[in-house]
Design brief:
Blueprint: H1 27-40, H2 46-49, E1 57-62, H3 68-79, E2 83-87, H4 101-111, E3 114-119, H5 124-131, E4 136-141, H6 147-160, E5 168-172, H7 179-188, E6 195-199, H8 208-216, E7 220-224, E8 236-239, H9 250-256, H10 264-270, E9 276-278, H11 299-318
Parallel strand pairs: 1-2, 1-3, 3-4, 5-6, 5-8, 6-7, 8-9
Bound molecules: N-carbamoyl-L-aspartate.
N-carbamoyl-L-aspartate is lined by residues 68-69, 140, 146, 149, 179-180, 240-241, 280-281.
Length: 324
């Protein structure tokens, strides 16, 4: 990145804009992020990269517990040279005092150049983004969306699957409450002719509203009820955790939590030679650790890629340095 022109605004559709939902981006925006993420991953650019957000302050405002997404954004911001205000427990501070989401967000928008926010309420990111004039990045809003997780998931799939057209994938687990799945299917809808198999306990199946939204945007959805219905030629399996924190009755969680467990023998029986095994993490028993040695298991690669993808996104939204 020696050809950069320092202090030139990046002239792109990202600069100064919030990311609330992946529906805001088309294939060209996603490709732009992925191309830049490749450069972020290349150690020879590290020195230039560390100047991209020099002098900027970003607030990580988290109303819901998080360690990996929080750490990933924190590292991404710091690697770009930004300072961070890091609020892990906004719910037990500002909210507990009775402050509205809008006021909390306004306060931190005054202190910083932008906000990366996680909240337990679907729609919170949009609400927050509309009351401030600085960019806000949605780091997960309840059972709504998790757009940066989907970006890193798709970036990872792309690294392994050369042709993203006619992609065939399986998503498993808590598809009703799992925001990562919602954003993932939204993101995949930008590619040609994807087919997604949905395997979930019936109470946790993808909502009919989301099913029609995705079908309308060109995704073929196939609801299945048993592992025996998994086709043998999936490009990826995306396993998810049953989202305990969304249940009000713990016995209902206990009933469904172990419905589908990915084990080496299940993989042996139903996966293809090239099927990728993915998970947004944390896993809490739904992927047997014995599978970690399998070269098709790429959940830790997803984590690593998440850093580069978030660096790329933050650079595009907040960066003053032009990267060719
Ligand atoms: C996911 C989330 O928070 O939605 N985790 C993450 O961001 N890495 C998935 C989950 O918590 O199950």
């Amino acid at each position: 990145m020696t050809d950069r022109a320092v202090d030139q605004p990046i002239h792109n559709s990202f600069f100064g804009s919030s990311l609330v939902s992946l529906s805001q981006y088309g294939l060209s925006e996603m490709t732009r992020i992925f191309d830049l993420a490749e450069r972020m991953a290349d150690p020879k650019h590290a020195a230039d990269v560390s100047q991209i957000l020099e002098g900027k302050v970003l607030t990580l405002l988290f109303f819901e517990p998080s360690s990996r997404t929080f750490g990933s954004f924190s590292s991404a911001a710091k690697r770009l040279g930004a300072h961070t205000i890091e609020i892990h427990d906004a719910a037990s501070t500002s909210t507990a005092k009775g402050e509205s989401l809008e006021d909390t967000v306004r306060v931190f928008a005054s202190y910083s150049d932008g906000i990366i926010m996680r909240h337990h309420m679907p729609g919170a990111a949009l609400r927050a983004a509309t009351v401030i004039s600085k960019p806000l990045v949605n780091a997960g809003d309840g059972i709504g969306e998790h757009p940066t997780q989907a970006l890193l998931d798709i970036y990872t799939i792309r690294k392994h699957v050369k042709n993203m057209d006619n992609l065939k994938g399986l998503v498993v687990g808590d598809l009703y409450n799992g925001r990562t799945v919602h954003s993932l299917i939204e993101g995949l809808s930008k590619f040609k002719n994807p087919t997604i198999y949905l395997l979930a306990p019936s109470s946790l199946q993808l909502s009919p509203e989301l099913q029609s939204r995705f079908t309308d945007s060109g995704v073929t959805l196939k609801l299945i009820a048993s592992v025996e219905d998994i086709p043998s030629d999936c490009d990826f399996w995306y396993w998810t955790r049953v989202q305990k924190e969304r249940f009000t009755k713990m016995h209902e969680y206990e009933e469904v939590k172990n419905s589908f467990i990915l084990t080496p023998s299940l993989a042996q029986k139903y996966a293809g030679k090239k099927t990728l095994f993915m998970h947004p993490l944390p896993r809490v028993g739904e992927i047997d650790e014995a599978l970690d040695e399998d070269p098709r298991a790429i959940y830790f690669e997803q984590v690593q890629n998440g850093l580069y993808v978030r660096q790329a996104l933050l650079a595009l939204i907040f960066g003053k340095t032009f990267i060719t």
